[in-house]
Structure formats: C-alpha cells, structure tokens
Design brief:
The protein has 4 helices and 6 strands. The chain has a single domain, classed as Aspartate Aminotransferase, domain 1 (Alpha-Beta Complex). The protein is an alpha+beta fold. A hairpin with a 4-residue loop joins strand 3 and strand 4.
Length: 103
C-alpha cells in the first residue's frame, strides 16, 4: 500500500507540480493543467494517460483500470493506492505528468 504522504512526495517531486483542490478531490497540476486527482477517502488516484499507456498500465483491473464512460475513453484511469506497487505508481505518474506538461 502506498501511503498518502508517500504518494504526495512522489507527485510533488515532478518539476513544477502544484497541489490544488478540485471539487471534493485534490488535484496535481503542471502549468495549471491537471495530470492527476486524488480521492483521499478511497485512496484512489485518477491519472491522464494516452490510449496506448492506458492499455499498457492496466495490467490488473483490480489495481489500474479505465474510468467508466467517456472519461475513460479519453485516457483517464484509476489507480488503487492500496494495491499498486510503488515502481508502477512512479512510472504511471511520470507518464501522466509528461502527457500534460508537453502540451
């Protein structure tokens, strides 16, 4: 299990990342664009992947899986912080960060 403190340290270590409220969740942004949101109560992260990344990272549908509906088709993907391995989380966050920061 990834602690919320550990997750935030990883996310905020990415250059230019800011933590801001986003409705009832916490968002992580670069250049004012969201690359991840965190549901603190559920320990559930949502990241912005490309379609290809979504298929690669979704190795176990109980750990990483597309958001249902149109959001999932746009690449938004859930990651269960209670189940994901730290190395996978770091790679996933970096990919989501790069998707948003390079635009």
């Amino acid at each position: 299990m990834i602690s919320l403190i550990s997750f935030k340290e990883i996310a905020l270590s990415l250059p230019g990342t800011a933590e801001e409220p986003h409705f009832e969740k916490t968002s992580f942004r670069v250049r004012k664009k969201i690359f991840a949101t965190l549901d603190l109560k559920k320990h559930l992260l949502c990241v912005k992947f490309t379609e290809m990344e979504q298929s690669v990272f979704a190795y176990d549908p109980t750990v990483i899986y597309p958001v249902p509906n149109a959001w999932g088709k746009q690449g938004w993907t859930y990651i269960d912080l209670k189940k994901v391995k730290k190395t996978v989380l770091k790679d996933a966050l970096k990919a989501a960060y790069e998707n948003v920061s390079k635009k």
